[in-house]
Design a protein that fits this description.
single chain; mainly alpha; 3 helices; 0% strand; globular
């Protein structure tokens, strides 16, 4: 499987100083990779969990921690 020609995204090296769990790190990375130039994305919990290889509950918990620690901001959609 070649990754040439694939999209790439950057994360700050400082992210390692925050001692995120592997699931929190993976969920944050997925959200960053999903965000466009305006740094917004709206994946469903099901999509996040499937893409990160975790349960929806684990993804929900990771998002809660990321929001609480200021990594992300959640906006309600209807």
């Amino acid at each position: 499987m070649s990754i040439l020609g694939e999209r790439f995204f950057k994360l700050s090296n400082a992210l390692f100083c925050y001692h995120l769990t592997p699931i929190q790190f993976t969920v944050y990375s997925f959200l960053v990779s999903s965000a466009g130039r305006k740094e917004k994305c709206w994946p469903s919990m099901k999509t996040i969990a499937a893409s990160c290889g975790c349960s929806q509950n684990a993804a929900r918990e990771a998002i809660g921690v990321l929001e609480q620690r200021g990594f992300i901001r959640r906006v309600k959609r209807y």
